């Protein structure tokens, strides 16, 4: 059998003898989301990585730390976004040491933008940068394919995001609290709290909040997208970034709210 | 008194037996012999004042500026060789511009001062080049960090007082007038600039009317002191 070409092919081309899935690029099909609240940000993502129709990884972590209190949500080509994230993590770490203070979220977003815009012909990456810094609190910046940069109070991305623009537009309100944001993104009342990593959790009251979280905004939004988009699915990964640190949660597939009557 | 270098002062790449680099010390002399530059930090901004000696009556007012703008929010007042200072101001501007294009926001003053100081230091390491014969004061103001003042090289005067920018402008003018030695130097032109809340974080030359008011205040204070001296005698 001929050696499989690793050059990125347009979907739909059927020139090679290799099976379809071997010619497809590894993509994070994805639904990603980030919301600003008073005091930080909540970010969420699904966990499906596909090569064509095959799910290469059903428990992917698309929420990547760039710095202590700055994360990015990755969508698009898995390889491209990983490479960009690694490069930005290095640059930001260096910059932070030079300045001798924690970096600004805006700086991280700018570094992503510089790379995504400069190499826009070679890359396929849609990234949401979110985090907390002392100067401007919680911030969400979106860097879609092509390399634009804009700050938004709430941002969705990835192939699954198309299905939830209406939901987000109708349900998002400005100045929500952390609990409301989580409710927006994730789950209602039955979320299993898995504190996979709680970094720099200096405040005891934060631990209590994690258990009490009811998740009204992010979970339903992500669940709705995962329901309709074939490239999104698996579990919902959430992270809350604030002055006190980062709390991470996982909501398993069977605990996600279901919206179909059937 | 300055000791004679005798052989150890020919290049910046030579130490003297007592551990000094004479070329750097001679460079500082260039600063000491120049006219005064002042930067003062107050609670809502920074004011710069420079005593600009007028070398010839043919010079137009406002020529040979010794206060420079480095990016919108940073000002730089210099003392020493003006040509060296101009080239360093271009270095500082490039640093600030590169920072902004890489990271998307204003360069923090401390970082800028460090970068320019590193550049100045590099010229003290090699025999092929000479050290810069100027020192300068960098100042800026922003809402988060407040007013900041940094000096590169210890020559030049810098101290902080608790007053507002507007009041400070008059004081700076007064200091320059006092410091100006009538006998030794000829006429001089006062250059004043400020950055602070009053200018919304932008470094600008002090407007003409405020500058004239400050100069008037300075001249009056000098006369008062002269009068009081006479009385005492």
TrEMBL record, chain A:
Any one GO CC term of the record: nucleus
Origin: domain of life: Eukaryota
Keyword field contains Methyltransferase: no
Matches recorded under SUPFAM superfamilies: N-terminal nucleophile aminohydrolases (Ntn hydrolases) (SSF56235)
One GO term of the biological process aspect: proteolysis involved in protein catabolic process
Keyword terms, alphabetized: Cytoplasm, Hydrolase, Immunity, Nucleus, Protease, Proteasome, Threonine protease, Zymogen
Active site: 30
Reaction(s) this enzyme catalyzes, per UniProt: Cleavage of peptide bonds with very broad specificity
Positions of transmembrane segments: none
Pfam families, per the entry: Proteasome
Subcellular location per the Swiss-Prot or TrEMBL entry: Cytoplasm; Nucleus
Listed GO MF terms: threonine-type endopeptidase activity
InterPro entries, per database record: Ntn_hydrolases_N, Pept_T1A_subB, Proteasome_bsu_CS, Proteasome_sua/b, Proteasome_suB-type
Subunit: Component of the proteasome complex.
Role summary: Component of the proteasome, a multicatalytic proteinase complex which is characterized by its ability to cleave peptides with Arg, Phe, Tyr, Leu, and Glu adjacent to the leaving group at neutral or slightly basic pH. The proteasome has an ATP-dependent proteolytic activity.
Similarity comment text for this entry: Belongs to the peptidase T1B family.
The name this protein goes by in its record: Proteasome subunit beta
Automatic annotation (TrEMBL), chain B:
Gene3D superfamilies reported for this sequence: Glutamine Phosphoribosylpyrophosphate, subunit 1, domain 1
InterPro entries assigned: Ntn_hydrolases_N, Proteasome_alpha, Proteasome_alpha-type, Proteasome_asu_N, Proteasome_sua/b
Keywords: Cytoplasm, Nucleus, Proteasome
Annotated ranges, domain Proteasome alpha-type subunits: 8-30
UniProt KW 4Fe-4S keyword: no
CDD domains hit by this protein: proteasome_alpha_type_3
GO cellular component: cytoplasm; nucleus; proteasome core complex, alpha-subunit complex
GO biological process, one term: ubiquitin-dependent protein catabolic process
SUPFAM superfamilies: N-terminal nucleophile aminohydrolases (Ntn hydrolases) (SSF56235)
PROSITE patterns per the UniProt record, alphabetical: PROTEASOME_ALPHA_1 (PS00388), PROTEASOME_ALPHA_2 (PS51475)
Entry's localization field: Cytoplasm; Nucleus
Regions that span the bilayer: none
Role of this protein: The proteasome is a multicatalytic proteinase complex which is characterized by its ability to cleave peptides with Arg, Phe, Tyr, Leu, and Glu adjacent to the leaving group at neutral or slightly basic pH. The proteasome has an ATP-dependent proteolytic activity.
Family as reported in the entry's similarity comment: Belongs to the peptidase T1A family.
Subunit structure as annotated in this protein's UniProt entry: The 26S proteasome consists of a 20S proteasome core and two 19S regulatory subunits.
Protein name: Proteasome subunit alpha type
Species per Swiss-Prot/TrEMBL record: Electrophorus electricus (Electric eel)
Taxonomic placement: Eukaryota, Metazoa, Chordata, Craniata, Vertebrata
């Amino acid at each position: 059998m001929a050696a499989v070409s690793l050059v990125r092919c347009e979907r739909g081309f059927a020139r090679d003898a290799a099976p379809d899935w071997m010619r497809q690029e590894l993509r994070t099909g994805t639904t990603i989301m980030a919301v600003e609240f008073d005091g930080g940000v909540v970010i969420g993502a699904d966990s499906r990585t596909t090569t064509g129709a095959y799910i290469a990884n059903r428990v992917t972590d698309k929420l990547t730390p760039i710095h202590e209190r700055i994360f990015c949500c990755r969508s698009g080509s898995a390889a491209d976004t990983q490479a960009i994230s690694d490069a930005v993590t290095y640059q930001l770490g260096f910059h932070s040491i030079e300045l001798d203070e924690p970096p600004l979220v805006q700086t991280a977003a700018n570094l992503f933008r510089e790379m995504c815009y400069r190499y826009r012909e070679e890359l396929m990456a849609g990234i949401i940068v979110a985090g907390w810094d002392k100067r401007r609190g919680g911030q969400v910046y979106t860097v879609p394919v092509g390399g634009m940069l804009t700050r938004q109070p709430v941002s969705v991305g990835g192939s699954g995001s198309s299905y939830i623009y209406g939901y987000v537009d109708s349900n998002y309100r400005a100045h929500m609290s952390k609990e409301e944001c989580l409710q927006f993104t994730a789950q209602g009342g039955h979320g299993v709290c898995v504190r996979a990593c709680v970094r720099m959790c200096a405040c005891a009251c934060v631990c209590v909040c994690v258990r009490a979280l009811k998740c009204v905004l992010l979970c339903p939004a992500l669940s709705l997208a995962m329901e309709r988009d074939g490239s999104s699915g698996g579990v919902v990964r959430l992270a809350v970034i604030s002055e006190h640190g980062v709390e991470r949660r996982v909501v398993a597939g069977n605990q996600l709210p279901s919206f179909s009557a059937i | 008194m300055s000791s004679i270098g005798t052989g150890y002062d020919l290049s910046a790449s030579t130490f003297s037996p007592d551990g000094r680099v004479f070329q750097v010390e001679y460079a500082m002399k260039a600063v000491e012999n120049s006219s005064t530059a002042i930067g003062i930090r107050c609670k809502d901004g920074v004011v710069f004042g420079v005593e600009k000696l007028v070398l010839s009556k043919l010079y137009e007012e406002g020529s040979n500026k010794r206060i420079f703008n480095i990016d919108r929010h940073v000002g730089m007042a210099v003392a020493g060789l003006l040509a060296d200072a101009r080239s360093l101001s271009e270095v500082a501007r490039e640093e600030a511009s590169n920072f902004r294009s890489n990271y998307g926001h204003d360069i923090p003053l401390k970082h800028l001062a460090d970068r320019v100081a590193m550049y100045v230091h590099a010229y003290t390491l090699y025999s092929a080049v000479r050290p810069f014969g100027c020192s300068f004061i960098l100042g800026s103001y922003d809402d988060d960090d407040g007013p900041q003042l940094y000096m590169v090289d210890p020559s030049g005067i810098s101290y902080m007082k608790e007053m507002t920018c507007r009041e400070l402008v008059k004081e700076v003018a007064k200091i320059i007038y006092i410091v100006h030695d009538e006998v030794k130097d000829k006429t001089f032109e006062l250059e004043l600039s400020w950055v602070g809340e009053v200018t919304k974080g932008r470094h600008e030359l002090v407007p003409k009317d405020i500058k004239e008011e400050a100069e008037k205040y300075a001249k009056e204070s000098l006369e008062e002191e002269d009068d009081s001296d006479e009385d005492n005698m």
